[in-house]
Amino acid sequence: MAWTEERVEVLKTLWSEGLSASQIAGRLGGVTRNAVIGKVHRLGLSGRAAPAAPKPMAPKEPAPEPKVRTVSMDPATFGEGRMTVSTIGTNQCKWPIGDPASEEFHFCGQGAASGKPYCAYHSSLAFQPNSARRERVRTKAPAAIAAPKRAYN
DNA sequence: CCCTGATTCGC
DNA sequence: GCGAATCAGG
């Protein structure tokens, strides 16, 4: 399973969303949590670093008014609205657009259902790939390296 | 024991 | 670059 742009986007998003490596791995499918963590490190977003650029220090953004843009654009034109991490609303799609460490970085910003971090379009991207396996009840750890206990008889 | 991420290391 | 094995912690 190769790390396609889409999969990487999902990875970055879910990771920044706070999901654990095993959760992400299970969602993507075809990869283990080790692979996810390895990729995460390789991407340089370990430690749950903020997706936003390493802003040294915002000169005290007064913006006391959480005026979010209630945009309703088509998925095809997403990217038009430059929702930054500071302008994103709670019920707006938080799908990352562009490099997290770039000025171009912003969020989709489309209307998202309450509780859902993404709009329908990106939600499908993130949740569509595989939906069969959600259960975590069966943690893949049957390993149980049989103890080589042998009697020295 | 279950889990978590972090790092190493052979591929 | 990739991910399993391993490490280190909760």
UniProtKB/TrEMBL annotation:
UniProt-annotated stretches for the region Disordered: 48-73
- Alphabetized InterPro entries for the sequence: GcrA (IPR011681)
Instruction: Identify the domain of life.
Output: Bacteria
Pfam families hit by this protein: GcrA
Protein name as it appears in the record = GcrA cell cycle regulator
Give the species this sequence originates from.
Answer: Parvularcula dongshanensis
